[in-house]
């Protein structure tokens, strides 16, 4: 490997079939964890995707794009299972609404033993990431033991809640599984909508996030509020808010949260995990917001490079 792997990612890789107003479905490469892997690698962070990909046409396209973006594949030999699909209807504001087809699919053909062993072989590993559809309680036997092993190994655990309640048959079990995963996390990313679905106590999203920080073992929580900005909260007591000052020409919001998290993690790694004070948190938030802002101005998930996000942040200062 020419670039040391610092982040390992496990979770869904799928095809978003994005519906237009005339009913046409346009296939786009997607999946929250898949997007995050691409976005991190584009920011210069050595990343490895742990789940298998299909030998079908969509699987080959998914693998090609990961490799094109510099992501390493833990399972380069494709599997016979088919690729996951998601039908995506965009609202008038460009927000995605999903319906998933994920039975007998390639990215779910994993075991906890494989995930653990794959990470054990990476001496440069610092962070592991999961979230979104990987938090389906039907797959907890794969992901939770892996997360526990990574925490025990001293790696930072990142969980992006990224709830999909409309496709989970049992919301109570789904919610409980997410809470169990969040208790293992050093970094938690949640949106205001995630907090509402998780039924976290509090009168505002910020109060809910503060409560989650108190009851979890997280060192850092990122709370995203869409166009209304984002908060970073640390277990040292820092609370930092940031928001764009310019009106963006939004194409859609597909991959925005993934690009935000990639920007946050890339900046965190370049800062050598410094979250000691408000200036450090502001640096992280500035780069994360810039990364998301560039993504939403593209159709589909087109994550920016580190230099692109740095340039945007320099030219478009955010409100703190």
State the main characteristics.
alpha/beta; UDP-N-acetylmuramoyl-L-alanine:D-glutamate ligase; 320 residues; 13 strands; 10 helices; 37% helix; 19% strand; nine-stranded mixed sheet; four-stranded mixed sheet; single chain
Describe this structure in words.
It is a single chain. With 320 residues, the chain is an alpha/beta fold. The chain has one domain: Ribokinase (UDP-N-acetylmuramoyl-L-alanine:D-glutamate ligase). The chain is built from ten helices and 13 strands. It has helices at residues 32-42, 57-68, 112-120, 140-152, 171-182, 192-198, 205-215, 256-270, 278-296, 306-315; strands at residues 7-9, 14-19, 25-30, 47-49, 72-73, 84-90, 96-101, 127-131, 156-160, 187-191, 220-224, 230-234, 239-242. The protein starts with 6 loop residues before the first strand and ends in a 5-residue tail after the last helix.
Strand content: 15-25%
Order of helices and strands: EEEHEHEEEHEHEHEHHEEEHHH
Strand ordering within the main sheet = 5-4-1-8-9-10-11-12-13
* Major pleated sheet: 9 strands, mixed
> What structural category do the secondary elements indicate?
alpha/beta
The percent of residues in helical segments reads 25-40%
CATH architecture: 3-Layer(aba) Sandwich
Would you state the CATH class? Alpha Beta
Secondary structure: number of strands: 13
Rg measurement, Å: 18 Å
SSE blueprint:
Layout (H helix, E strand, L loop, with lengths): L6 E3 L4 E6 L5 E6 L1 H11 L4 E3 L7 H12 L3 E2 L10 E7 L5 E6 L10 H9 L6 E5 L8 H13 L3 E5 L10 H12 L4 E5 H7 L6 H11 L4 E5 L5 E5 L4 E4 L13 H15 L7 H19 L9 H10 L5
Parallel strand pairs: 1-4, 1-8, 2-6, 4-5, 8-9, 9-10, 10-11
Antiparallel strand pairs: 2-3, 6-7, 11-12, 12-13
Helix pairs in contact: 1-8, 3-4, 8-9, 9-10
């Amino acid at each position: 490997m020419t670039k040391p792997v610092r982040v390992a990612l496990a979770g869904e890789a799928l095809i978003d079939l994005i519906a237009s107003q005339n009913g046409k479905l346009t296939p786009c490469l997607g999946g929250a964890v898949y997007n995050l892997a691409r976005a991190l690698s584009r920011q210069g962070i050595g990343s490895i995707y742990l789940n298998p990909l299909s030998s079908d046409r969509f699987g080959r396209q998914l693998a090609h794009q990961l490799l094109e973006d510099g992501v390493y594949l833990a399972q380069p030999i494709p599997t016979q299972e088919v690729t996951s699909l998601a039908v995506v209807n965009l609202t008038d504001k460009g927000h995605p609404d999903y319906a998933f087809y994920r039975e007998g699919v390639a990215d779910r053909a994993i075991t906890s033993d494989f995930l653990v062993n794959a990470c054990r072989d990476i001496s440069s590993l610092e962070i592991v990431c999961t979230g979104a559809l990987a938090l389906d309680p039907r797959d907890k036997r794969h992901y939770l033991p892996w997360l526990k092993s990574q925490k025990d190994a001293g790696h930072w655990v990142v969980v992006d809640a990224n709830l999909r309640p409309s496709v989970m048959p049992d919301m109570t079990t789904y919610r409980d599984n997410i809470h169990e995963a969040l208790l293992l996390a050093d970094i938690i990313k949640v949106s205001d909508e995630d907090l509402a679905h998780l039924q976290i106590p509090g009168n505002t999203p910020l109060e809910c996030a503060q409560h989650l920080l108190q009851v979890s073992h997280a060192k850092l929580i990122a709370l995203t509020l869409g166009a209304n900005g984002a908060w970073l909260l640390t277990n040292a007591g820092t609370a930092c808010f940031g928001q764009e000052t310019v009106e963006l020409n939004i194409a859609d919001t597909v991959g925005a949260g993934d690009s935000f998290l990639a920007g946050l993690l890339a900046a965190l790694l370049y800062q050598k995990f410094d979250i000691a004070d408000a200036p450090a948190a502001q640096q992280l938030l500035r780069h994360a917001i810039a990364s998301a802002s560039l993504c939403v101005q593209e159709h589909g998930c087109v994550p920016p490079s580190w230099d692109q996000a740095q340039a945007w942040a320099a030219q478009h200062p955010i409100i703190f």
